[in-house]
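Researcher: Quick one. three chains, 849 residues in total.
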Amino acid sequence: MTRQNRMQVLCLIAMPLLATASPAMAGWKLKPAGQAAIVDNITITPAADWNQWTGRPGKQGRTWTRDGFELNSLEVFSGVPNGQPLYRERNRKQNPLPKFDKSMLLPDLATFFERSFRTYYNIADFTVNETVPDSISGHQGIRVTYRFVSATDELVLLGEARLAVVGGQLYAINFFAPELHYFDAGIGEVHDIMDGAQISAK
Amino acid sequence: MNPACRLAAVALALVGLEGTARPQDVDLTIPPYSGAYEPQGVDERGLWMEVDEAERQFRDSTHVLKDERLTQWLGEVLCRTVGDDRCASARIYVVRDASFNAAMAPNGLMLVHTGLLARLTSESELATILGHEFAHFERRHTLNQFKKIRASTDLMAWFGLAGAAARVDMTSVQNSLIAGIFSYSREQEMEADKLGAAYAKASPYRLNASAVWKRVIEEDNARREARGLRKRRHKYSGWLDSHPAEAERQEYLAELEAKVGDEGDPGVEAYREAIAPVLPMLLDELLRRNDFGGVDYILRSRGELAGWSGPLLYAQGELYRQRGNPRDLVTAREFFTQSMNYPDAPAESWRGLGLCAIRLGDREAGREALAEYIRRAPDAQDVGMMKLLVEGTGDQTK
Amino acid sequence: MKMKNHSAALFAVLFLFLSVLSDTPALAQEKGAVREGFSAEALQGQKIVLVRPSVWVGEQSMAGVPEPNADWTAQSRELLVAELGRRQAQFSNVIIAEPELVGPEAKLFADYRSLFSTVARSVMVYQFFLGNRLPTRKKGAFDWTLGDGTSRLGELTGARYALFVTTRDEYGSTGRKIFQLLAAGIAGVGVQSGVHQGFAGLVDLETGYLVWLNADGQMGGDVRTEDGMQKRVRQLLEDFPGLAEEPAH
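Model:
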């Protein structure tokens, strides 16, 4: 039953896929080291050069990468409104995404993030290591650290997300990369990016 | 290539052969057991070595649930079903996978998915499925498929079948119900089912196939309804498309069951006791699927058939709380409250109740419930978060 | 992206259509690269471990959903191993096979096989496809790594380099081919039927650097036949620094 399914879910880790068929689809924008970058209502300052995908993982989201989505992905979500999903909903009927609700409590955000992430990337083997209080731009929020196995290559990846609700909207910064080399190589800078993020919400 | 239980196939195979064997013609005597198949010739012996090696690696896999008590109980049910001489050939592994499945390899390795245990409600249902799988083994149906798979990496893929499935949330209909149905021919399914019925007749259990089959269909319908999809007209693909309607299938299985007789033990109580220690884990796996309708059906039917319990009501509450529509929070709160009436209510019921109450504006009751959760589960990974809420600072809705 | 329904497939058609319209160079693609400073000389006298190849062969349904075929996969793996064995004599280095390991060490090899496939695919998608090259890679330097944790593979094998080979083939089914014809009629462009991905890469186990890579999403050779596999392996090993020329056929 399973190899079939695994492969059917061709989605490696989603986006690059189409790229094998049609590489021209994605566009990129350089986000140079040391320069403040504005992602909708969040300002972050990377220490190294990053690439911002011109597509969006969700209506309020942006994805950055250094070496490709499968090797390091940094997602920034700025102001997901009440009733909207975090990620783009690909198949509303067969695989609906949970919707953000501004009445969610901090622990609800962790559940919301896990369910959104698992569904969007079609990850079955996903474990939350820790949910702890944290903050973005001085707003109280949570930090979720997690581990998952990619559907295509059975590669183990680690991730860390921070989420906070500001003015009734959800803000999130999420990083994930393979456990071998790439997570450790990237997380230091990503912590600095998360710590320095500024929300300029209404 | 994936041999797997698939009650669907069982039922369909049974009905599929109009005219060949109506239930009244079925001979329900068990043939003498010739023992586990021994590999013949160099090729097969090579294959066996590979299977054995793969099994050694599989044994250590994180996808296998190492629960001696549970595994031993499954073995006992199998032995009571097929008899002590036969069951000595099987080695059972419980695989962490929320899908409905079981399978047996030609060297005697038997896989039972946790998703199967989560959906069954009695030992007689379990016996029916294990018996059916054992019949495939006894008839050597899997052998030919394994012969085709030579390279050990492929064997690992077969053993990993569960693992691989666990990596992909099989929420779409075609995945969750029918995938892999083609592993056996209709004739083989038919043969396995006949032999399975014969085991049941000779065993202390009653044959209990149609009820499980009915629930599998109803689960699928519930899933589709929740997603606003049309009910499937048993489009199991290929040859199954043109096959007799569900009603006829049910009828056929029921006829077969009538022939075997219902004086056997349903084994509901024994099943509940055996499954109790792992039930919270089984339910948690279900909750992780993005499948509100299907899981809601599984939980409800389990409560109705096998009795409600603290963990079951907690899971119902959690299912609604996670969907989180305002009316869901009210429903969830009700389930959490009910679960607290049972001595086996999990600490998480207080967490769920607390979170729902706060979101519904009942902050006082919510904080009290969360404080109780922290008392009951002081080491939980999210206790830090809950303390914030109890202190009244982690609530951004204010 | 699951190409499970027609809208997804249509989207792909539209996509190709747009990319063909906008500019063809976007589809231009490089197929191989060598890390700066690496040459055949660096390989001299060094042991290379041939990591067990990852092979996957299947079929594409009409919507482009890949389905595995165990027979084809098994057959193709046998052919690949046999062909690599046959070519071994032409390597100027000592080639050793991946040792038979069990437990955590076997898992380590499996993990690095997965990481290699992921890195090789990333090179192909984010560097070799010129139209999709990441701005940070615009200078064109071939600088990719599996991380220096690969030194553990060196300790386990005594090799300085590791050669990884990955193939993934999805053959178009009849339904897919019909769809292809239809799409050509409607949109005026072809929908790709079948995927024939092949990666071969050499990794310096001391540093983790990928020093040489061949990666192509449309390789030739039917991997289900002996002749086809010879062609595929020829393509995979093309320009491999430590390989003597194969006599022309």
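Chain C has a mean pLDDT of 79.
Researcher: Thanks, that's what I needed.
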